[in-house]
Design a protein that fits this description.
The chain is α/β, with parallel strands linked by helices. It contains 15 helices and 17 strands. The strands form two sheets. Strands 7, 8, 9, 10, 11, 12, 13, 14, 15, 16 and 17 form an eleven-stranded mixed β-sheet that branches. A six-stranded parallel β-sheet has the order 3-2-1-4-5-6, sandwiched between helices. Helix 1 packs across helix 13 (303-320), helix 6 (105-122) runs parallel beside helix 11 (200-214) and helix 14 packs antiparallel against helix 15 (407-418). This is Homoserine dehydrogenase. One of its GO terms (biological process) is threonine biosynthetic process. Its EC number is 1.1.1.3.
Length: 435
């Protein structure tokens, strides 16, 4: 049977892994796809690298636009990344009637609505399993495996860099800055780690998952994003004492008034499986009304794990290449005319529990003042630690865990607590999820 011809844009880490795995497992993949899948053309600015990886088994060019307009190419794999030229190339490939496979979560989270509309109009597929959680087939699970369910919420450790940093901070008791340097030295963090440590990368992925889970458009600009750079090692230690682990979670939750879409450091009970995901691993927990909770765990990055997802998409597109566009799985799981523009709730309207740490004068009546303020805001306390003041010290820490409340109520109570003359500095606030 005639092979499917693939044009690969970018042969860096994931592109190289894709080329290698596709070649190594060619026979197995052909048996599954029903016809050979061949990367016939590779576009990369670094032709020397491309030559080294391909070993002369593909045509090479430094002009990616020549690939997306080549009539011989059936599927374009975009592994360049970013919002700029990648968007132009993807739209040009679609315009030329080519299916697209991409690992570009930033592009889809920001421009996905436009890209999917263009693909729908042209009758081509855009597949993006590799855009979220590397080799874990979470997109397929949400879009197909859980299709009988009304998905209630999902929560994911979807950035390996931050999970590695938090694991090291907990294990070694080191401050954030020291562990970040270690992560950079080991290759887990980029030279400029901003997208990872400030939660932007996780927010891109959470945006994509929320759209598929709830049948809503991509709304990255509405996501609440908070990273781990200001997290103190002392809070990780206190959380541990209280039976919790701190993880950077991407959370999407269905509410009556809309959808919560947020990324932030979160306390999770240590007995939960997801709380024990360590190092650079990823995990996504999905709650469906019929199936209950399902957990997806594995490598969220790396050459071959991500290549695994890229090639799974190539096989899917190959199987459906000649099918009627009306009978394919919709991009966002729901039929395009059934995608609903449900509002994403502002962070002030989010309902969750809180960890509060405050540095206070060590004298009678302080705790009573604080608990009175919380009670006036209808916030009840689940657990409390009051540390003994060190010898010669006049201040100590109070740590409170609250029951669920609306964020705006928590913020109003915190402002009143900070105004007390016995409270020194700002109150540290972290959100908690029971999952």
């Amino acid at each position: 049977m005639k092979p499917i011809n693939v044009g690969l844009l970018g042969i860096g880490t994931v592109g190289g892994g894709t080329f290698t795995v596709l070649k190594r497992n060619a026979e197995e993949i052909t048996r599954r796809a029903g016809r050979p899948i061949c990367i016939t053309t590779v576009a990369d600015k670094n032709l020397e690298l491309a030559r080294k990886v391909t070993g002369g088994d593909a045509k090479l060019t430094d002009d990616a636009f020549a690939v997306v307009t080549d009539p011989e190419i059936d599927i374009v794999v975009e592994l360049i990344g970013g919002y700029g030229v990648a968007k132009e190339l993807v739209l040009k490939a679609i315009e030329n009637g080519k299916h697209v496979v991409t690992a570009n979560k930033a592009l889809l989270a920001v421009h996905g609505n436009e890209i999917f509309a263009a693909a729908q109009k042209k009758g081509v597929m855009v597949a993006f399993e590799a855009a979220v959680a590397g080799g874990i087939p979470i997109i397929k699970a949400l879009r197909e495996g859980l299709t009988a369910n009304r998905i209630e919420w999902l929560a994911g450790i979807i950035n390996g860099t931050t999970n590695f940093i938090l694991s090291e901070m907990r294990d070694k008791g080191l401050p954030f800055a020291d562990v970040l340097k270690e992560a950079q030295a080991l290759g887990y963090a980029e030279a400029d780690p901003t997208f990872d440590i400030e939660g932007v990368d996780a927010a891109h992925k959470a945006t994509i998952m929320s759209a598929i889970a709830f049948g809503i458009p991509m709304q990255f600009d509405k996501a609440y994003v908070e990273g781990i750079s200001k997290l103190d090692a002392v809070d990780i230690a206190y959380a541990e004492q209280l039976g919790y682990r701190i993880k950077l979670l991407g959370i999407a939750r269905r509410r009556e008034q809309g959808v919560e879409l947020r990324v932030h450091p979160t306390l999770i009970p240590a007995k939960r499986l997801i709380a024990n995901v360590e190092g650079a691993m990823n995990a996504v927990l999905v709650q469906g009304d019929a199936v209950g909770a399902t957990l997806y765990y594995g490598k969220g990055a790396g050459a071959e794990p991500t290549a695994s997802a890229v090639i799974a998409d190539l096989v899917d597109v190959t199987r459906l290449h000649t099918s009627d566009p009306e009978h394919r799985v919709p991009h966002l799981a729901f039929q395009p005319d059934q995608v609903r523009d449900v509002p994403v709730l502002p962070i002030d309207d989010v309902i969750t529990s809180y960890y509060l740490r405050m540095h206070v004068e060590d004298k009678p009546g302080v705790l009573a003042d604080i608990t009175r303020i919380l009670a006036d805001s209808s916030i009840s306390i689940e657990a409390l630690i009051q540390k003994e003041a060190a010898e010669g010290e006049t201040h100590t820490d109070i740590i409170l865990l609250t029951h669920q409340t609306v964020e705006r109520n928590a913020n109003a109570a915190i402002a009143k607590i900070e105004a007390l003359p016995v409270v020194q500095g700002k109150v540290t606030k972290l959100r908690m999820e029971g999952l």
